[in-house]
Amino acid sequence: MDFKEEILKGREERAKLINDYLKDYSVIISITANMPGGDKNIYLSYLLINAFSFLVNETANSDYFYSFNQDGPFLLIFKKNGNSDKLKKQMILIEENHELGRFIDIDVYDKYNLYFRENKRKCMLCNDLAIRCMRNKKHKEEELISHIEKNVFDFYSKKFEELIDFSIMGELNLHPKFGLVTPFSSGSHKDMNYDLMIKAKEAIIPYYIKILRQTLITTNLDKDINHLKDIGIQAEKAMLQVTGDINAYKGLIYNLGLLISAYGYKISRYEVRSVYEISKQIANRLHGDYNYESNSYGDQAYRNYKIRGVRGEALSGFVNVQKAIHLLKDFSQENLLITLIYYIINIEDTSFLKRSVSYNKYQDIKRKFKELNIKNKAELEKLNKFCLDNNLSFGGSADLLVLSIFIKKLNHYLVDLKEKKY
Amino acid sequence: MKGIAGSKESNDCLITIESANSTTIEINSIVGAFFYDQIMETVKETLAENNITNVKVIVDDKGALDYTIKSRLLTAIERMKEDV
Predict the structure, then answer these.
(1) Taking burial as the number of CB atoms within 10 A of a residue's CB, which of A154, A161, A165, A276 is the most buried?
(2) ipTM exceeds 0.90, yes or no
(3) Contact between chains at A135 and B35 (C-beta distance less than 8 A)
(4) In degrees rounded to 5, what are phi and psi of residue A106?
(5) Binary contact (B9, A8; C-beta < 8 A)
(6) CA separation, residue B36 to residues A18, A168, B23, B27 (Å)
(7) Does B71 lie at the interface with A, CB-CB under 8 angstroms?
(8) How many angstroms separate the CA atoms of A130 and A136, rounded?
(9) pLDDT at site A81
(10) How much is the pTM?
(11) What is the CATH code of the structural domain delimited by A3-139?
């Protein structure tokens, strides 16, 4: 069977599947990529499907099925009850207004009908009717695909840039923060301030986008792992250059870089593992065999107390982030603070240990945070002052707070799709 | 005897074929205003190539290209032959 026949077979199979599901659900939204050419499973198809995974959220509490066949990936969203006319109108609006709407087909099915868009679509390159260009083979396949590619890359770069900025600023603007830099205080960091942190942030963001793009197109993470590491090193250099050799965001370059790699990998292929599982895999490839034999403070801490620090959190697949993300119900100052404190208490942070002077004091300070009632302003102020007086700081926790904001916010746009959710 | 193939998805067509006393072809296409003749030509050609006569063919077209229409029709013919 040639590839065209395979594609048609896949399409028919999907239609049958939808018909079967219509026995259990009253409305089904089907999302497929509008991809020219013989390979319907290229990475762009997956990026397009994922760009519309937010529809799982929009149509609250929906069940879904995410799969692929020779006709490419597809996402089916099921509704037990719902007004299919209204839904179709909503979907048409999304197709017409979303930046990538032209490259996606959102179809709404109910027991009686497939609701078909009445406006015959225009070609994605010229103003002519799409079907006319297709029949006349007016445009080269490569031309169409590179047009889609440009739009998809622009969309994701912009979205990630916005969200990285939002997440870093969300953490930075939180005040008071127990010795971390805020808009009103340099905290326990005599060599840093708010403006310096912002400069550092601006310097590193382009490298996160490089990491994203690299993981979108990668076909072999093992082979690309050193390339990703190099981008991280470049990010560090760029940061040190604008800060005058001050390490404002070294830990964050690593942690957020890792998380973004996992997202990039996830959304560009059929991958139903969670981003946490993927980041665990990448972290293990990066330094699963790390021997902790150097004279660095972190390695000594591991040898003395079996504390792995930031590296251990990453190797675990951000297990504490998975727990704390539920505390971040919204981005209010109170919930940001609750989440930060969760990390201070629960993660092992070697730079915090270093500043605590002794392991016993480190445990004592954690206890103080456990006992803190954050609703009590006076208590909060007192603990904040204690941290400043003792030159404490919690960089590792701050990094994980940035990650939490990022994941929470991104989840509005990009759902971490599993194969099925019932 | 009856055979159905295809779907009503974008860029596809649903084709129904069944035995009848004479050959009739019915085409419902969202782009019929532009491509009715071409679609009709493809259906007639495919039937002739396979020596199929005395059938009723209904094409529900959602913007399929010729090779899709031809392929769907061939599958529908096979299914009709198997349907006894």
Answers:
(1) A276
(2) yes
(3) yes
(4) -110, 110
(5) no
(6) 29, 58, 18, 7
(7) yes
(8) 10
(9) 81
(10) 0.94
(11) 3.30.70
